[in-house]
Amino acid sequence: MSSNNVKLGDDSVRVPKLELGGSNWVLYKDRLLWAADAKGYRGHLDGTVTEPVAPQAQAAQTATAMAAETATPGSALAEWRKGEANVKQLIASTIPDSLFMKIRAKPDARAIWVALAQEFERKSRMVSVDL
User: 83-108 b/e with 16+ CB inside 10 Å = b?
Assistant: First the structure.
């Protein structure tokens, strides 16, 4: 099982590459969850961290001004986007290209993680039943 040193925030973490058939799914899943948790990003995978809702625009505030205000560094939306980007990169750098092509259009890290889990949890259960 090969592994990657992945830059997550300011630190590197070691997460194994997911094998094409998912034979190492159980170890991959736990190590990726631990790595995300260590950096404070696990909520992006388990759904407990969601995209902040932008405050309602006041009558005089344009949509462009509101978007600029909510995406400024340090804002809740900017922090959420940073977390999403880090978690997506962690996943993308540890899965095969063919699998990346299947999940790349998912809207957020949670949807990507759910798609991976659905694919490989089913395969893991089938293997354990065959044993």
Answer: bbebbbebbeebbeeebeeebeeeeb
Task: For residue 40, give both structure tokens.
Answer: 């404070």
43-74 pLDDT, tens digit per residue, is 999 999 999 986 664 445 566 655 655 568 78
Say what the pLDDT of residue 69 is. Answer: 55
Burial of 1 (0-12, 13-18, 19+ CB in 10 A): exposed
Interatomic CA distance for residues 108 and 96, integer angstroms: 19
**Secondary structure in 3-state letters for 65-127:** HHHHHHCCCCCHHHHHHHHHHHHHHHHHCCCCHHHHHHHCCCCCHHHHHHHHHHHHHHHHHHH
pTM (predicted TM-score) = 0.76
Which residues of the chain carry a pLDDT beneath 70? Answer: 1-11, 54-71, 124-131
Cα-Cα-Cα-Cα torsion 8, 14, 19, 22, nearest 10 degrees, comes to -80
